[in-house]
């Protein structure tokens, strides 16, 4: 048996050199990557493929055209007495290659080299064709996706044309296609075939349906209720502190009710100081608390006030212990109305996650802020309908207290049906609590919390 070690850049070059040197019947015993260089240990040498091959024939294979082969470094054949050592080394090489992360550089034992051919290796051709087909399929998928109409264009396609238009309008306002189609199905059962051809009757019918499915809680204080403790919870940046300031200004200055403020958001000193400034302007007391016991004590100390508003810090998804502390306030005192403050610009998926996170605090109301920063109000309807929680208030600007109003089902139904007169504007002209600014702090408002 004649064995020889070959070094080449690629397996294709190595196979061609083996065929030229040992003939087409040669066997590949092992392959591995090595570095060849002039420096010690070949640290900075060039990476080559080392292939050990053998043949039973002792005759030298002649090369018809040596210039056709690429330059190749070849080592001398191993002596016969070293073949056992080479066989042992081959077993070690085989084991290491099987563990190596290079699937293309595997040991092929007892496999004969194919006859000479100028075509690329079948495996390389197959991989190249597979990659090309994959890219073509991805391009085709992108073209098909871009050519398909979105959900707002396909919703309600089985309805009569006027009802289908109304269904697509609801989808563009942020309702899920399934919810919009459910409303239209209920409307189709109510209206006659003649009425389903009238856009105005469809609009009126959908308006009534939306109002029936929207629950509102009404104001905090009214003629029948002259005392309440309300706690405001929610993620950072939702607008809890601003909502509390607007409520305090409205009830203290416009309705002449006694108001007290308690804040647990002591981590942000700027928020505490700004809330303290507003409390001073409004002439209402402000308590800072660190623990549940301090909150309960503050409530008892100001029990003569008509309205006690509790501000809380924004909590992240992993602050479970702090959430449980907030829940403990309600357990310790009892009759606390909890408002979950959310931004109307938040995606529906994130709104659902937030509601699930604050379930431990048992929120009883939904308060939405930043309605002036969006033109889609379907999230308000979807979340209130899915959670069965009533809407309490919504905020539509930064001015205190006029950019704030109690939630109304008729108003939200108008917004969902895109009735222009119901839209919120950044100037707050749509507010129903007050038309004139009551509190002026040089145009500033509390930081969002």
Description:
There is one protein chain. With 449 residues, the protein is an alpha/beta fold. It has 3 domains: 2-115, no CATH class; 151-213, no CATH class; 228-422, 3-Layer(aba) Sandwich (Rossmann fold), CATH 3.40.50. 40% of the residues lie in helices and 15% in strands. The chain has 14 helices and 12 strands. The strands form 2 sheets. Strands 7-6-8-5-9-10-11-12 form an 8-stranded mixed β-sheet, sandwiched between helices. Helix 12 links the parallel strand 9 and strand 10. Helix 6 crosses helix 7 and helix 8 (240-254) runs parallel beside helix 9. The relative contact order is 0.10.
Could you list some keywords that capture this structure?
four-stranded antiparallel beta sheet; 3 domains; eight-stranded mixed beta sheet; single chain; alpha/beta; 12 strands; elongated; 14 helices; 449 residues; Rossmann fold; 40% helix
